[in-house]
Structure formats: C-alpha cells, structure tokens
Design brief:
Helix content: over 70%
Number of strands: 0
CATH architecture: Up-down Bundle
Strand content: under 5%
CATH superfamily: Amino acid/polyamine transporter I
Distance between the termini: 94 Å
Order of helices and strands: HHHHHHHHHHHHHHHHHHHH
Structural class: mainly alpha
Shape: globular
Number of helices: 20
CATH class: Mainly Alpha
Length: 456
C-alpha cells in the first residue's frame, strides 16, 4: 500500500533518524575494528584495582603535600616523583600478586604466617591513621567545593560527602562500584591540564627530575618524609590485595581454593599492566602538581601551603581561573575516589584480622561488621571537622600512625611474596626482592625521621 502525501510528510523525520542511526551503527563497527581502538578498549578493560589504587594515592592530602613541595622548594624535589615510581610499582605488584596467588587478603596472610598480636596492633593503628586521613580529606573536599560555590555551607558539604561515599560503598553493587572508581580516576588529568595552562620552563623541570637536589634542613627532610609517607602508604597495601580477591570473586571464583587453582599467567600479566599503569598515573600527577606550584607559587614568593584548597586559591592570581578551577575540581573528584578506599582498606584489615565476613561484593546484612567499620571510620572522620582539629594536625597524627606501621607491614609483604611455600611459581624474582628490602629499610628510616623531626 502506497503512502499518501501527508503520511510521507510525517514519516520523513523518522526515516531520516532511522537512517542516521544505521549509519552510526555502521560507523561504530568500523571504528571498533580499527587496531588502535581495539587496543585501547582491551587496555581499558584490563585496568582495575591497580588504576584506582594509584589514583587514590593522590588524595587531597597528597595533593596538599605535593603542592607544598613545589611551593617551598620549586623544582628541587620533583625528582621524588621519578624515584618513588619503581618502589611503588614493585610494592603494589607484590600486594596484588599475594591476593591473586593466595586468594585471600593481606591481613589473612599475615595472620596465618606471622604474629597475630603484631597484626592486631597494626590494624588498630591503621584504622586511626585512616580516620585522621579521612577527616582531612573531607575537609579539603568541602573547602574545594566552596572555592567554586562559596555560598554552600561547610557542614552541609562534609555531611553530603560522607553520605555519598557510604552510599557508593554500601548500596551499589561491587561490579558497578568498581567501574565508578575507574572513571573517577580520570579526574586526576585535571592536574595535567592545569600544568599546561601555565608557563613552565620544562628544561629546568627535567634537569631537576634527573639530577636529585637535597638541602639538609628540618623542613625539607619533613617534606621528603611526607612525600614517601603519601606515596607508599599502608592503606594502599591492604586495598590492593583485597581488590584483587574481589575481582576474582566477581569472575565467579567464590572459594579460596578456586581462586588459587584458577589463577593463570595471563591473570598475573594483566595485573602487572594494571598495577604499573596505576602507579605511573599516580607519579605523573605528583610530577605535574609539583611543576605547576613551583612555576607559579614558588616563582612568586608563596612558599607555604597548608591544604589542597589553599593551593588552588593561591594559584588563581598567577595561573588564572582555568588552572584554579581544575585544581578545585580535582580535589573533589579524587576525594570521592580516595575516601571510600581509606575507609574500605581499614575495614578489610580489621575484618580479616578478626575473622569477620568481609567484602564489598556482599550485601549489607551479610557483612554487618565489615560495613560497620566503614560507617564508623567515616563518621569519626566527619566529627574531626567539627571539633576544631585543623587539617595540618590531622595529617600529622595520620603520618605518625602510618610511620609506625608502614615498615612492619612492608616487611611482612616482602617476606610473604618472596616465599616459595606461599607463592609457588609466582614468588618474587631477585630484582623485586632487592627493591622490596631496600623499600623496607627506606621506609623505616623515613618513618623514624618523621617522628623525630615532628616531636623533637
């Protein structure tokens, strides 16, 4: 039956739209068949716990530390972003490999093979360290939001971010939640864009990157210690291991025996790509933040930054509204990524230590103690913002707690990952052992120095 003129008239828009959709589908298929696109899609699929762990390392407290490094010493300490990269990569790979190979989290492995009492002590300190860090990050996120929307109340923002973080962890399925974390990691590129929006002498930057410069003063040693404490932190160890186990469970490997038996060389390879990509991102962001603050703040005589929000505000007169806005957006975005990881890592550690049901893949009613730790950690972090404890002091307390436990936990990580009895064919190679033990000694010296310089 032929269409009448009126029917043809009204059919035309729909037919044009349908044709456009068909062309769009064909174009999508053609693009997906291109090798670079296929490679990029495969690479993005591999990324997961390593990417989010690396991104969480650049939390608002870390942003404040890197900003202060650039403001206080210019480009002189930018070499730390290169120096810390292989250390972070090797350590986090060990953590991930432990999770994949044993099928259980870090605390469970430590409890099985080493002192339970020492583990109890470390996990309790980890909870306190993470609570102080959560408190500082919540405050920074609220202040960062106020930089863009100054009329919104600080208290409202802190409470809002707490609720948003809890909803993400408790009421969103792990499959969706892990995807959100991956996309939130991309917020960090705001700091790359901000660096290229200001005038930077890149020749001077790369000279200081490859030729380390150290001035032996109390303030500089504290900054260096803070940099290592921020980049190599215990909460990352527990989170990385636990997330590898969660990813296995997501694939249907429900029991510990299944996870150990079904682990393959391809799984190890994919994990390494993921972990090293995440650590590269983490250190790149550290590099760009130091470079931006050195080229703007240090160059204009502003040498003291207290918080990430202070850094964004100080940038505005010298770097312009674009860099200022990117800095502020980055604080909020990466805070939404890091705060759930801080609370979650403490919960994994405590729940495994005391044999509670654990895992974000479980429903709330299936793991009440696990989610209870997350809720309490978030609420305590929130309260810190309302009792007059300033952000600098909260970070000092966090640094002290981390300083006590970091070398101990790292010692266990190297011992476990080097053990043929525990790890089998996936035990550490010689290079990993050398870097691992060097990191243990370095972290011990850094932690001891931090405590001495802060309190002596």
């Amino acid at each position: 039956m032929k269409k009448g003129i009126l029917e043809k008239f009204f059919s035309a828009p729909a037919e044009i739209l349908e044709k456009g959709v068909e062309i769009g589908h064909d174009l999508k298929k053609d693009i997906e068949q291109e090798r670079p696109v296929k490679a990029a899609a495969s690479y993005w699929k591999i990324l997961g716990p390593g990417l989010t762990t690396g991104a969480a390392d650049d939390d608002p407290s870390g942003i404040a530390t890197y900003s202060q490094m650039g403001a206080f010493r210019g480009f002189n300490l930018i070499w730390l972003s290169l120096f810390s990269f292989p250390l972070m990569g090797v350590i986090q790979e060990m953590c991930a490999r432990i999770g994949l190979t044993t099928g259980v989290g870090l605390a469970t492995n430590i409890k099985r093979h080493f002192s339970k009492r020492l583990l109890y002590f470390c996990t309790v300190l980890l909870l306190f360290a993470n609570v102080f860090n959560i408190g500082a990050d919540l405050g920074a996120m609220a202040k960062g939001t106020q930089l863009i929307f100054p009329r919104i109340d600080f208290t409202f923002l802190v409470v809002f971010f707490v609720i948003a973080s809890l909803v993400l962890q408790i009421f969103i399925s792990y499959k969706k939640y892990s995807k959100y974390l991956k996309y939130l990691a991309l917020v960090l590129f705001a700091y790359v864009f901000s660096a290229f929006s200001v005038a930077i002498n890149w020749g001077d930057v790369f000279r200081h990157l490859v030729i380390p410069t150290i001035s032996v003063s109390k303030d500089e040693i504290i900054l260096i210690c803070a940099a290592f404490g921020t980049t190599i932190s215990p909460y990352l160890f527990f989170w990385q291991t636990a997330q590898e186990v969660e990813e296995q469970i997501l694939k249907g490997e429900k029991t510990e025996e299944q996870r150990r038996a079904l682990n393959t060389s391809k799984d190890i390879y994919d994990m390494r790509v993921d972990v090293w990509s995440g650590m590269l991102l983490s250190n790149l962001i550290m590099f760009f933040i130091i470079a931006t603050c050195a080229a703007t703040l240090f160059a204009n005589g502003i040498t003291n930054i207290g918080t990430a929000a202070d850094a964004a505000l100080a940038l505005k007169p010298f770097a312009g509204d674009f860099a200022f806005t990117l800095f502020a957006i980055g604080i909020v975005g990466v805070g939404l990524l890091a705060i759930p990881i801080l609370a979650g890592s403490a919960s994994y550690a405590l729940s495994e230590t005391f044999n509670w049901k654990t895992g974000l893949y479980r429903k709330l009613k299936q793991a009440t103690s696990f989610y209870g730790v997350i809720i309490i950690a978030m609420l305590l972090g929130m309260i810190l913002n309302f009792i007059g404890l300033d952000p600098i002091k909260t970070l000092i307390y966090s640094a002290v707690f981390n300083g006590i436990i970091s070398p101990v936990i790292l010692f266990f990580i190297v011992k476990i990952s080097a053990s043929e009895e525990i790890m089998g064919e996936y035990k550490n190679k010689r290079t990993a052992n050398i870097i691992g033990w060097f990191s243990v000694v370095l972290l011990f010296v850094v932690s001891l120095s931090t405590i001495i310089f802060l309190f002596v």
